[in-house]
Design brief:
The chain has 43 helices and 35 strands. The protein is an alpha+beta fold. Among the domains are: about 15-20 and about 25-30 and about 130-255, Calcium-transporting ATPase, cytoplasmic transduction domain A (Distorted Sandwich), CATH 2.70.150; about 35-105; about 350-395 and about 650-720 and about 750-855, HAD superfamily/HAD-like (Rossmann fold, 3-Layer(aba) Sandwich); about 400-415 and about 430-650, Calcium-transporting ATPase, cytoplasmic domain N (3-Layer(aba) Sandwich). Strand 34 (about 825-830), helix 26 and strand 35 (about 840-845) form a beta-alpha-beta unit. It is elongated and about 125 Å long. It is an enzyme of class 7 (translocase). One of its GO terms (molecular function) is phospholipid transporter activity. Keywords: ATP-binding, Magnesium, Membrane, Metal-binding, Nucleotide-binding, Translocase, Transmembrane, Transmembrane helix, Transport.
């Protein structure tokens, strides 16, 4: 039955090789679209987005008012030109960004794939593929759509795929076709295939698929193991055929991508509110002046009707006041000039270029520079409170290294010196020579030669250890040339372990469904593969059963140590105890561990067990449970061989970056598709999880009730133990009823780890508040086994309830959804394609660059933008409100006090460049100080530099400046005379004096507010003053008056006015009176209420008071005398060092003295604990001083 495309799809019906049937359902084609606009929708949609800015709508209304000649005393071009300019510039920028998204879409849509059409395979573009088509994929090809696997070149319909674009994992996964379709390997058979699939509707669940295949009168259940999803890559499989089930935007990958959202900063939203406030203030001023006009006209102006008759429209005093109201609305509109938004866009563009040009964020090895892909979010980089990070490829390099192992109770992997002291392994440490093995991997490095000697001496335990590693896995080998092996592993751990076995002489060469071929110490040995007992999250182990050439049947097992130890033979008790100690040592180093064991099987026993296995593998219901029971039966009585320790290499600088961002009060949550154990190991490696934490809560419930109970238990544990009073006593009262109040009182450190299936329940409306409260009480949060959509839901949860700025960072297509959801999205140019980068706002090559992006560029951008806005509102209120005061002295006639050219050029020429220089180049502290003291980042998170209070203060300052700029000259002109004893009676002289005073005052004020002076600041500030006088004398000269007398009426005013000494005295007096109060307030604020920045700046001045220093004092530091007398820096034998325990308390004192002395000098924060961490962090960083 046809289904309307507008109706909700309940289930999907797909029939192979029957396009007429499938077309009835109006399924989506395979075209994707991530761009927002097309040719027809760009103009209306873009204008709609731009006019969401209240200021743009405000100026449009003003423009309409200026077109009415009865109320406008200004030309409409003063508003038309800048408004159109802003709209055009913004539209061009938006169009350019969207064009790049369109090009990316076209690149994907135009990829080629082979489609079975009318009995033959034809190349078709991806966008022309439809649901129900049968397509052929070849090795290393991307899967074009979500397809049902029908057949492949491998036996039993197997194929191998890489899912990095979906879940971030580069390991291979196995998919298998139904046995009934696995022989459909040629075109003729596929043409006759007319199976019908009924399955679930499109959804975003990557790990689940439910459907049924109807063919030849039979029903065959379908699950996720039969599906190849769009975004996967076919590996180690020559070809495969599949039936398209979901296409285009209905594929699971695209369902997880989310929509492209229009992102606006908090400052943009605040400015919308402020514009409404200013507009209300403007209405009030217009109303006051309009009422004043009505009163003036009724009481005074009637006496002048003979000389100043009313217009024909102006027939009564009330209507006169009404027209005057609108005239003043137009005159006073410059309190929010359109040039503000032009300037903001210029600043953001400049800040973006500074990010692009930063060589300290350039990765030379991959030739990748940092790129600001948007220009609208720079200042929000200085306000981030939550970072949501992917793990694989973002925090880690996704490179596993075999580091250590424990075999038969002996640790291998450590290096010792001649005094039997453990040495730290560095790049200069000599590697083991594997030249005895021609098949070794030259990239593999190991440093303990004793393990190689044990292999060469044919130690049975060591050889069995590496034999197990070479046999117990699901790795696929690919021998591109003789001896050149490439392993495709389902997990990076397996690849590392098999590579280790290869280098130690047990080389995995080949596999078939029935055999595994090794090269053991140069000899080829083939094992018969009898069974694979596969890994899953419940079993946490895998086993293989093989028959060796001697006919012995053996079971080899590897898995989590707790699982393996439960299944050991009692005779292994001592070895298990020793190995447990070794595992604890490995875990303390952040290494990923596995325990290894084996078992000799009796032939008769195996035959009986194998029959049970065949039966369990063919049942329809509860197949997995029955297989687990059979597996459990044979995996008992194991003999322990040892344990492995693998290092998952972090990207360079990840622990230091996380620690530094933590000192800046930025919370980092890791959202990963990896399993729980892997995520926790990485958490320990990058110091998000530590052994000294009070508790690490693991939420792994499978039902809503279980998850709710686990969350509540964890929260009650924290609240019950961690509420501390001022006296240090534990409080268990209801005083802290609001979680946000006592988050700062938590003194213990906790971490939260939650699984994907538990997170699905925790994100339900009834539990999301408990989850968020618990997560915010924890120092670290790790969510594992999460889907891309769940990542976005976690980000949205924090955005919605915490009202904090969020940043998401990732490198794969599975991160696109959260990158689009967060306020700021950052893409890592890594190994998993460019989808994350294309969807991001900023991109770079390494996670460590995030520290500089936020603490330097983000902080500077926020600081500069806030100072720019404060000064901009100040100078415009000072400029505009002079008209308000003048209204009381001009009969409320809506006459402007300034020359028309001054009004036009004030924001465009006279004051634009100095404020742009401040917004582009000003910095309160240098970049190295920003990194050294992460606490300086906190004002941005607390939104201290520009908020409603700061806006009120800067407008109040502008109001005061306008009052003084008007009334000081007004009062002076009423008492003084010119040098020739005549009066200053001209309004034009008064206007020039006020304008000149205003220009000097606002430029001196910006000079005082500038923290960092560069040549461009001097050029723009003093150049603007000079340019003002040059233009002033030009527009008021005789020559230009004779050319256009109507437009330049102030002829000769500047020359006559500014030649008087008394005028310059008035200007000087006005400048001093306007500037001194703000100068005094600034000095008092720094002395009485210093900020962190003020303290750091004063500290720098103290350090630079003298350029002459004693060389001894410069190169030595307090505490080293005690170090020498303590003997701690002397090389001693093991015996002597062990015999001096009494020295330890004394040695700790000099360390405390050194730290104390450092803190006394470098303390810029009120909390000494934070500073100690900051100083320790400084020593781990390699930022050069400028």
């Amino acid at each position: 039955m046809p289904v309307c495309s507008l109706c909700l799809e309940r289930e999907r019906h797909v029939k192979a090789n029957d396009p007429d049937y499938n077309e009835k359902f109006f399924y989506a084609d395979n075209r994707i679209k991530t761009s927002k606009y097309n040719i027809f929708t760009f103009l209306p949609m873009n204008l709609f987005e731009q006019f969401q800015r209240v200021a743009n709508a405000y100026f449009l209304v003003l423009l309409i008012l200026q077109l009415i000649p009865e109320i406008s005393s200004l030309s409409p071009f003063t508003t038309i030109v800048p408004l159109v300019l802003v709209l055009v510039i913004t539209a061009i920028k938006d169009a350019t960004d969207d064009y790049f998204r369109y090009k990316s879409d076209q690149q994907v849509n135009n990829r080629q794939s082979q489609v079975l059409i009318r009995g033959c395979l034809q190349n078709e573009k991806w966008m022309n593929i439809h649901v129900g088509d049968i397509i052929r994929l070849e090795n290393n090809q991307f899967v074009a759509a979500d397809i049902l696997l029908l057949s492949s070149s491998e036996p039993y319909g197997l194929c191998y795929i890489e899912t990095a674009e979906l879940d971030g994992e580069t390991n291979l996964k196995v998919r298998q076709a139904l046995s009934i379709t696995s022989d459909l390997g040629d075109v003729s058979k596929l043409m006759d295939f007319d199976g019908k699939v009924i399955c679930e509707p499109p959804n975003n669940k990557l790990d689940r698929f439910t459907g049924t295949l109807y063919w030849r009168g039979n029903r065959y259940p379908l699950d996720n193991e039969k599906m190849l999803l769009r975004g996967c890559v076919l590996r180690n499989t020559e070809w495969c055929f599949g039936l398209v089930i979901f296409a285009g935007l209905q594929t699971k990958l695209m369902q997880n991508c989310g929509r492209t959202k229009f992102k606006r900063t908090n400052i943009d939203k605040l400015m919308n509110t402020l514009v409404l406030w200013i507009f209300a203030f403007l209405i009030c001023m217009g109303a006051i002046l309009g009422i004043g006009n009505t009163i003036w006209e009724s009481l005074i102006d009637t006496n002048f009707q003979v000389y100043l008759p009313w217009n024909t429209i102006q027939n009564n005093v009330v209507f006169s006041g009404f027209l005057t109201f609108w005239s003043y609305v137009i005159i006073l509109n410059t309190v929010v000039p359109i040039s503000l938004y032009v300037s903001v866009e210029i600043l953001r563009l400049g800040h973006s270029y500074f990010i692009n040009w930063d060589l300290k964020m350039y990765h030379s090895r991959t030739d990748t520079a940092a790129v600001a892909r948007t220009t609208t979010l720079n200042e929000e980089l200085g306000q981030v409170e939550f970072i949501f990070s992917d793990k694989t490829g973002t925090l880690t390099q996704n490179i596993m290294v075999f580091s250590k192992c424990s075999i038969n109770g002996h640790i291998y992997g450590d290096v010792y010196d001649e005094f039997s002291q453990k040495m730290e392994i560095t790049d200069k440490t000599a590697c083991v020579d594997f030249s005895f093995n021609p098949l070794s991997d030259t990239r593999f490095k190991f440093y303990d030669s004793s393990l190689v000697e044990a292999v060469k001496l044919e130690d049975p335990a060591v050889q069995e250890f590496f034999r197990l590693l070479a046999l117990c896995h699901t790795v696929m080998p690919e021998e591109k040339s003789e001896g050149h092996l490439v392993y495709q592993a389902q997990s990076p751990d397996e690849g590392a372990l098999v590579t280790a076995a290869r280098n130690f002489g047990f080389v995995f060469r080949a596999r078939t469904p029935e055999t595994i071929t090794l090269c053991e110490m140069g000899e080829a040995v083939t094992y018969q593969l009898l069974a694979i007992l596969d890994f899953n999250n419940v079993r946490k182990r895998m086993s293989v059963i093989v028959r060796n050439p001697e006919g012995q049947v053996k079971l080899y097992c590897k898995g989590a140590d707790t699982i393996i130890f439960e299944r050991l033979d009692p005779s292994n008790e001592d070895l298990m105890s020793t190995t447990s100690e070794h595992l604890s040592e490995f875990a303390g180093e952040g290494l990923r561990t596995l325990a290894l064991a084996y078992k000799d099987l009796d032939e008769d026993y195996f035959k009986v067990w194998n029959k049970k296995l065949l039966f369990a593998s063919t049942v329809i219901e509860n197949r997995e449970d029955q297989l687990d029971v059979v597996y459990e039966e044979i995996e008992q009585g194991l003999k322990l061989l040892g344990a492995t320790a693998v290092e998952d290499k972090l990207q360079e600088g990840v622990p230091q970056t996380i620690a530094c961002l933590g000192l800046a009060d930025i919370k980092i949550w890791v959202l990963t598709g990896d399993k729980l154990e892997t995520a926790m190991n990485i958490g320990y490696s990058c110091n998000m999880l530590r052994d000294d934490m009070n508790e690490v809560f693991v939420i792994s419930g499978h039902t809503l009730v279980e998850v709710q109970q686990e969350l509540r238990t964890a929260k009650e544990h924290i609240l019950g133990l961690s509420r501390v009073s001022a006296a240090g006593d534990v409080e268990k009262t209801d005083a802290f009823s609001d979680d946000s109040v006592f988050e700062e009182t938590i003194i213990a450190e906790y971490a939260l780890v939650i699984n994907g299936h538990s997170l699905a329940h925790a994100l339900e409306p009834q539990l999301e508040h408990i989850l968020l409260d618990l997560a915010c009480l924890c120092k670290s949060v790790i969510c594992c086994r999460v889907t891309p959509m769940q990542k976005a839901q976690v980000v949205e949860l924090v955005k919605r309830h915490k009202r904090a700025i969020t940043l998401a960072i990732g490198d794969g297509a599975n991160d696109v959804s959260m990158i689009k959801t967060a306020h700021i999205g950052v893409g890592i140019s890594g190994q998993e394609g460019m989808q994350a980068v294309l969807a991001s706002d900023y991109s770079f090559a390494q996670f460590r660059y995030l520290q500089r992006l936020l603490l330097v560029h983000g902080r500077w951008s926020y600081f500069r933008m806030c100072n720019f806005l404060c000064y901009f509102f100040y100078k415009n209120f000072a400029f505009t409100l002079v008209h308000f005061w003048y209204g009381f002295f001009c009969g409320f006639s809506a006459q402007t006090v300034y020359d028309q050219w001054f009004i036009t050029l004030y924001n465009i020429v006279y004051t634009s460049l100095p404020v742009l220089a401040m917004g582009l180049f000003d910095q309160d502290v240098s970049d190295q100080y920003s990194l050294r003291y992460p606490s300086l980042y906190k004002p941005g998170q607390q939104n201290l530099l520009f908020n409603k209070r700061q806006f009120f203060l800067c407008t109040l300052q502008g109001l005061g400046t306008s009052f003084l700029v008007f009334f000081i000259p007004y009062g002076a002109f009423s008492d003084i005379v010119k040098e020739d004893a005549t009066q200053f009676s001209e309004q034009q002289v008064f206007a020039v004096t006020i304008a000149t005073s205003l220009i000097i005052v606002v430029n001196v004020q910006i000079g005082l507010d500038t923290h960092y002076w560069a040549a461009v600041n001097h050029l723009f500030i003093w150049g603007s003053v000079t340019l003002y006088f040059a233009i002033l004398f030009t527009v008021q000269s005789n020559g230009i008056f004779f050319i256009i007398p109507k437009n330049f009426p102030f002829v000769g005013t500047a020359r006559n006015c500014l030649s008087e000494k008394s005028v310059w005295l008035i200007i000087l007096l006005t400048t001093v009176v306007c500037v001194v109060p703000s100068l005094v307030v600034s000095f008092l604020r720094v002395d009485l209420f210093p900020t962190l920045t003020d303290k750091e700046r004063s500290l720098r001045r103290v350090r630079r008071t003298s350029s002459r220093r004693s060389a001894y004092a410069f190169s030595h530091q307090q505490g080293y005398g005690e170090l020498i007398t303590s003997g701690k820096n002397m090389r001693m034998s093991v015996v002597s060092s062990a015999c001096s325990p009494e020295r330890e308390p004394h040695s700790s004192s000099w360390i405390e003295n050194v730290i104390k002395s450092k803190n006394e000098v470098s303390c810029i924060s009120d909390e000494s604990t934070e500073l100690k961490q900051s100083n320790r962090l400084q020593s781990t960083q390699s930022e050069p001083d400028l």
